[in-house]
Design goal:
Layout lengths: L3 E7 L2 E7 L4 E6 L2 H8 L4 E5 L11 H10 L12 H4 L4 H10 L7 H5 L1 H14 L3 E4 L1 H9 L10 H13 L10 H5 L2 H19 L4 E8 L5 E5 L1
Parallel strand pairs: 1-4, 4-5, 5-7
Antiparallel strand pairs: 1-2, 2-3, 6-7
Length: 225
């Protein structure tokens, strides 16, 4: 039986949904390495965080994702260049990013730097076969078009959960600690990434770009759906 894991970052750590095509289990950990360990053996992992950082300029994955999402393009943050990742302040990260041919670093993008670095370290340390996804792209693939209602609104949450139910991912169960620690939209995002992970495991997933770019860090940089 194929068993997969979708992961989304949340305020208190990492939210995970394990799915085997029938049953759903929630996993939560403050550290990504702990979540990967507690999830157990899985056939594919999809995570909503950049994997593979550019040395210069903008990743093709981000450009293509923005084009595909159209009116929801603002949900895609341009990935900071690797030189900017270790900068201690947003001002320094912004300056380094511009110096390496990319744009400014927004407050939202800078706030992700710690989690991006954690992903970098965790994937290297565990050797887990993790690929990058994006919930809005996955929901667009599932729905056939971008879901325009905000994921934090009642309407947006309802339509996304309905799409997941239609795909066989039922979240109306006790999800354990992740249900208490993570926000509703974090759990829903992790669930749709589990749907993408099942597609990755079956060979049905699409990556953008195809083939992925590879920068000096050696990671194949692409967003999968």
């Amino acid at each position: 039986m194929t068993r997969v894991l979708g992961i989304d970052g949340c305020r208190t750590g990492w939210a995970g949904i394990v799915w085997d095509g029938t049953r759903v289990n929630g996993v939560f950990a403050a550290r990504l390495t702990d979540l990967l360990e507690s999830a157990g053996a899985v056939d594919a992992v999809v995570l909503d965080m950049p994997i593979g950082l550019p040395d210069h300029g903008v990743r093709a994955a981000d450009r293509l994702a923005k084009q595909e999402l159209g009116p929801k393009a603002s949900s895609i943050f341009l990935t900071s260049t690797r030189p900017a990742l270790a900068a201690p302040t947003r001002a320094e990260a912004d300056a380094l990013n511009r110096a390496h041919g990319s744009g400014g670093v927004t407050a939202q993008a800078f706030a992700l730097h710690a989690k991006i670095a954690e992903v970098d370290d965790a994937v290297r340390a565990t050797g887990a076969a993790v690929v990058e996804g994006h919930p809005e792209l996955s929901f667009a693939a599932l729905a056939g078009a971008p879901v325009l209602a905000s994921k934090r609104s009642w309407a947006g949450s309802a339509v996304r959960r309905s799409l997941l139910t239609g795909a066989g991912i039922h979240l109306d169960v006790d999800l354990g600690e992740v249900g208490r620690q993570a926000a509703v939209d974090d759990v829903v995002d992790a669930a749709v990434l589990a749907w993408t992970a099942m597609r990755v495991a079956s060979g049905a997933a699409v990556c953008r770009p195809d083939p992925p770019e590879v920068f000096s860090d050696g990671w194949p940089a692409a967003i999968w759906t």
